[in-house]
Amino acid sequence: MLTKVKAAEDIKRTRIVLAGNPNAGKTTLFNALTGSSLRTGNFHGVTTSPAEKSVKGVTFIDVPGAYAFKSYSMEEKSAIEEINRADVVINVVDALTLSNSLNLTRQIISVNPRTAVYITKYEALKRRGGRIDKEKLARHLGVPVFICTPKQLLSQIEDIHFGGTRDNTPLDEAYFGGNLTVSKVDRLFYNRFFALFFFIACIILTFFFAFHPIMPGTLLKDLLETAICDKLSLAITANMSNPALISLVSEGICGGVGGVLSFIPQILILYFFLTLLDESGITSALCFATDGIFEKVNLSGRAAFSLISGFGCTAAAILTTRGYSAPDAQRRTIAVLPFIPCGAKLPVFLTFLSPLFANPFPVICTLYFLGLLVTVVVSAVMRGGREGLLTEVTSIAFPKLKTVAIKLCFYLKGFIIKVAVTVSLFCIVSWFFSHFSFGFKFVEVEESMLAAVSRLILPFFYPMGIDDWRLAYAALCGFIAKENVAATVAMLIPTGLNLPFSATLAICIFMLLCPACISAFSASVKETGWKFTLKCVAFQIILCFTAAYFTRLIFIWV
Amino acid sequence: MSMRVFDLKEGETATITGMDIEGGALERLNALGVRVGESIEVLSFSLLKSSVLISCNAVRVGMRKSLAKKIEVKPC
Predict the structure, then answer these.
(1) Which residue in B31, B62, B63 is closest to A68 by CB distance?
(2) What are the residues whose beta carbons fall under 8 Å from the beta carbon of A91, sequence distance 6 or more?
(3) Distance from the A101 Cα atom to the nearest Cα atom in chain B, whole angstroms
(4) What is the pTM assigned to this prediction?
């Protein structure tokens, strides 16, 4: 006897959970069903916490992947909880590993009979000679099976019929996996030397495209900077007469905010590289290949995924550590992630290096690899338990350019919104305090409230060769958002920096090792608690100042 | 003396004859299809040979040396 799913008015309260093995395609389906842009990747462990969104009265919940109900990691525990309380479960099953996936399918069905199976990667299965008989599979499992586009699934969700019975149809009749031979491309990337060499070569190539003076990144950045900071500023202020307003628009907004926006081409090149890594499965291969290095510093290859994520955003990278099975390893990784230069630090380094280096490419590379080195060293000396490695490694696949483009657009939109809101607000507030005295008179910058307060912290920066309160203030702004540093320098020092070589390197080292932004701080508190996070911040503050002082000492003679 | 997964060379295939593993790790391996009776192929070892990558049916599984040494195999 078939039972129709709840009546129309009940469907408005329906919670539909998308559950399945890691890397089955749950988040990709979630994004397609809800119009979202949650992070996806060809890697096991991208989604680390449930996400939900309502569409036409139906709430979809995307949960982290699980192999079985007896959880091995922290992220699987949250998936199990959601499945238990779901009205309908869409079990997302990877056609390429269907036989193994049905282990979880059967567990889900036994707990929640309102389960339907949605098959992903069916085209890839057909390419390797496999096939699925949808009706026979449905009879084998006793639940509806869908092989269709997300749009077609969405249109059929209200009419799903549950309550079918299993029969004795053997799985062999319903499913044939095709040619399971490991491809030559996969074998190449599974080679421990090739994966690491390829990754290092890609990083260097990415930095070359982004930072070399004759490459698109730098050329486009210069064009954008001229357009926003010079031409747009002149156009807007042409008919203004109020000096305070002219200063706010040209220095505060166009100078500060525009200065950060001009780095978009270079940041996008970096994110393009990270997205390709994510979508291709190379991150997965790299995690395995580098496990030996991470084992020596009390981590596992899984840390490679977190560290690579850190090149984009430290806060997002902290969230990836939920997939760890050992809390000590999670804490260790979170403690070292701030030393990986995030995407927002890129404009900071370029702001300080560009006046001194016509070609900052070699210095940028050095800073990034130095960050990795510090990460490894700090992890090695931290006490606590270790993380093992037991993970599925994905096949290498050429990324879909449409997916890459969508992800880049999503990132670009988020960056522009962040700059337009957070950085703009910060620039306006900074401009106000840097142009008004304590008596609220419009004054020169050197007589402002900001100057008076910033001079109190300047002594901490003297040993690194910084005697300008504006740079001391800019350095501290980074705790709110690293983008604020470049914006503040552009706003308060519109004529450009003129630091000596040793001081330039010292402040770059300071920015490399200083605590991450408030978003990363919040993520760390959520995952590890206040006590551990504050200890890490204290250590990072001591380290960044000490290292900056030493850097100046070493290079003062140059 | 019985062979373990970690004793195999790259490219060698074998059948799993025993797994001296308990708890979450065993459940994860079973969920990935790595069970007694299944055939595996060693695809690669990680840098510093801390882990091994095996292929078992359609799945590729990376595991530490300590775990791989607990899986008994018979070369094909």
Answers:
(1) B31
(2) A19, A20, A104, A105, A108, A109, A115, A116, A117, A118, A143
(3) 8
(4) 0.83
